[in-house]
Amino acid sequence: MSEKILRTEYSEEMQKSYLDYSMSVITSRAIPDARDGLKPVQRRVLYDMSELHLDHDKPHRKSARIVGDTMGKYHPHGDSSIYETLVVLSQDFKKGMALVDGHGNFGSIEGDGAAAMRYTEARLKKFAEEVYLKDLDKTVDFVANYDETEKEPEVLPVRVPNLLVNGAEGIAVGMSTSIPTHNLGEVIDAVKAYIDNRLLTVEELMQYMPGPDFPTGGIIANKSDLLQIYETGAGKIKLRGKIEVELGRRKADRDKLVITEIPYTMVGAGINKFLMDVADLVETRKLTDVVDISNQSNKEGIRIVLELKKDADVNKIKAVLYKKTKLEDTYGVNMLAIDDGRPETMNLKQILNTFLEFQYRNMTKKYNVLLQKEMEKKEVQEGLIEACDVIDLIIAVLRGSKNMKDAKECLMTGNTEKIKFRVPGFEADAKKLHFTERQATAILEMRLYKLIGLEILALQKAYKETLRKIREYKHILSNQKNMDVVIKEDLDSIKAEFAEPRRTLIEDGEEMVYVEAKEEAKEVIFVMDRFGYCKTMDRSIYERNQETVDSENVRVLPVMTDDKLCMFSDTGNMYQVKVAEFPTLKMKDKGIPIENVSKFDGKTETILFMLPASGFTGKKFLFATAQAAVKIVPGEEFITANKTVVATKLAGEDKLTEIREIGTEIDGTRDVVLQTVDGMFLKFQLEEIPELKKNSRGVRGIRLEKEDTLEHVYLPDMDGTAVYKGKEVALGRLKAAKRDGKGTKVRL
C-alpha cells in the first residue's frame, strides 16, 4: 500500500489544529446554546432521563444508571463530568430553578461534595419535565449521536429563556461565560412585554426584570450599573451578604450580628474561608468588638452568628466584614452563548429575541405536526361516519370478499368483479364506493361495538372536536400575532405554577468606609527555636528572662512591629514576613511554625541569616557558597514587596554557606578569611571581592581540593580569632595572599 506524505508548514498546521480544538471546546463543551441555555452535557443528561422515563411522579433511579446510559449513548467523555452535571442540576443553591430531583447526598452550600453516584438516586423535576422536555417529538430537530447509533435532540424545546433563568458558567479556550440567574416570574414578564412591543429599550425591559436573582439571596449593591451590563452583555455586579442585628433579650445576653444570606460567590468553600477570615480579623485586633463566631446553618438556611461586646459599634463591624472578607464580592458578568453556531456576547434584547425566534420555529413545527395529525384523524372519522350510514352495504362487501385485499379494493375504487354478493341489489351501490386508503383501512379494522348508537354519537362528537382543533391550529399558524397569544398564555401557565418570589434585594448600597487604625510601632523581640517555632515578645519580658531566652532559641533579634523580617536560607532564597504576622506571646507560649507564614520548607532548607527589612539600606553583605563562590551585594537589592525572592544564583548542587554584614566601607585596610572543612585558610583583602547583583553567582574565593568545601567566612577586624577543631586560630597572624589561591593548612 503506497503512502502519500503531505508537506506543510508546522506553524500553519499547529494554528489550524489549535483553532479546531478551541472551537470544539467552545461549541461542544463549555459554552451554552442561546436557544435552550444548555451545554451539551446538560442537554444529554436531561434527555437521557426523559428516555429512561424518570418522571417526577416515578421512583428515583440510581445516578450510576443515568450516568452510564448517558455516557454510552450520547456523551463519551467520562463519567465524572456527567455526574457533576447531574449534581449541579439538582442543587437549588446553584441554579435558579433546579431541574433534577436528587435523593441522597448531593452536596451542600458549604462545599461538601456529593456522595458517589452508586449511593445517590435521581429523577426529573416537574419543572424540567413540563418546561424543558415537553413535545420533544413535535418541535426540535434530532441529530445522530457520536457513533451514529442513536438520535439526540439538537436542542431541547425549552419554553422559557433558560439562559437567564438558570444562568451559565463555563471556561473555554480563549473565552468564558458567566451569566447570573434570574427570577422566573420576572423573566416571563419581560418576555411578554417584549412580545407586545419589540421596540422596548433595555431600560424599559428592566422595569419587568430589574436584575439578577441569585438562589442564595443577598444584596446587589450597584443597581445603577445593571443597565450598562444588560446593554453590553458584560460588567461587574457587587454582591453583599445580608446582615441582621439580634439584640439580647436579657441583660446577660450578648447582642448578635447574624448573617442570613450570603453572596452567590461564597457558595462552597467560601463559607469556611469567611469564618477563617473573621477569626483572623479578631486575632489581629481589627474586629475587637467580636467575642465569638459560630456557624449555625442548616437545611433551613444560612445562619452565621457573631457575638458582640457590650456597646459594640455595629456599623464599624459591618464595614470591616464587607471590606475585609468575601461577604462583599464582585460577580463578573459575560453573557456569552452560542448563537447560530458562533460564540457571541449578547445583551438582554438579543437573548430575548433569540429565544422568541426559537419559540416561533418550535411552535410552527409543533402545530403543523398537530394539524397534520388532526387532518388524518378527520379523514378517518369522515370515513367511519359515512360507513355507519351504509353499514349494510359494507357488510355485504365483506361477506362477498375472499380476502382483505379484494374488500379494500372495492371500498376504495368500487371494483366489484371479485365480490360475490349474496343479496341482490348491493352491487350497484358498491360500485359507487370511493373511500380513501386510510378510511378503508379504518373501516376494515372497525369493531362491531362501534355500531352502538352511543358510540356513533361519540364518533360524531369527536369529529366536531377534530374540526374545532383544525380551525384552532390553522388560526394559530395563520400569522405571528396569533402565535404570540399562544406563547403568552403558555408563559402565564408556567409562571402561575412554578414562579417563586424574588430572593435578592437590588439597591444602590452605600460604599462602606473602613479606615484601619494604625497601631503605634514599637520594638519587640523576635525569637525562633530550633524546631522553627516563632513568636515575638515584649522587650520587658525578654530583659527579665534574657539568659533563658538566648539559650533556648537559635534566633533572637529586636524588630519593629511595623517592619518586615527577612530570612535567608541555604537554598539561596529570601523569605519576607511582616512582623505583625507573628503572634506576640508570653514566655512559655510556643509560637507558630515559620512554614505557616512563609513558603520556607524546614525539611529541605536551613535558615542562615535574618535581618529586619529596614536594616538593608546603605549596607553591604558578603555571600559565600559551599563551592567557594563569593560576592558582595548592596542591601538595596533586597528591598522588595515580594514575599519570596531569589537572593543569589547557585550553580548545580551548590548551597549558600554564610552571609556576613560588612557595613558600608570597603577599602584596602579590611581583610577576609575563608576556611574550608579540611582546615585550609586563605586571607586576602575584602576589596578583591567584586560588588555584584543578587542574581549573579559570584567569583571563586579559594581553590578547593577534591571533596573539600567552604565552611566559614571570617572578618579579622570583627572576629579576631577562629576556632577549628577546638584550636583557636589568630586571624591577624595568617599570611596575607590573593583571592583564588589555595590557602594554608592550619597546624593542630
Task: Tell me what you see in this structure.
The protein is of the alpha+beta class and 748 residues long. Strand 25 and strand 26 (629-634) form a beta hairpin. It is elongated and about 150 Å long. Helix content is 34%, strand content 22%. The protein folds into 5 domains: 38-157, Topoisomerase II, domain 5, CATH 3.90.199; 242-326, 2-Layer Sandwich (Gyrase A, domain 2); 361-478, Topoisomerase, domain 3 (Orthogonal Bundle), CATH 1.10.268; 518-600, no CATH class; 616-637 and 647-748, 6 Propeller (Neuraminidase). The model has no long low-confidence stretch (mean pLDDT 89).
Which structural class do you get from the secondary structure elements? alpha+beta
Q: What proportion of the residues form beta strands (DSSP E)?
A: 15-25%
- What distance lies between the first and last C-alpha atoms, to the nearest angstrom? 83 Å
Write out the CATH superfamily name of the largest domain.
DNA gyrase/topoisomerase IV, subunit A, C-terminal
The number of helices is 21
Q: What helical percentage do the residues reach? A: 25-40%
Strand order of the largest sheet: 14-9-8-17
Q: What is the name of the CATH architecture of the largest domain? A: 6 Propeller
Average pLDDT rating: 89
Number of structural units classed as domains: 5
Q: Strand tally, please?
A: 35
CATH T-level fold name of the largest domain? Neuraminidase
- Silhouette: elongated
Keywords:
elongated, four-stranded antiparallel β-sheet, Topoisomerase II, domain 5, Topoisomerase, domain 3, four-stranded mixed β-sheet, Gyrase A, domain 2, alpha+beta
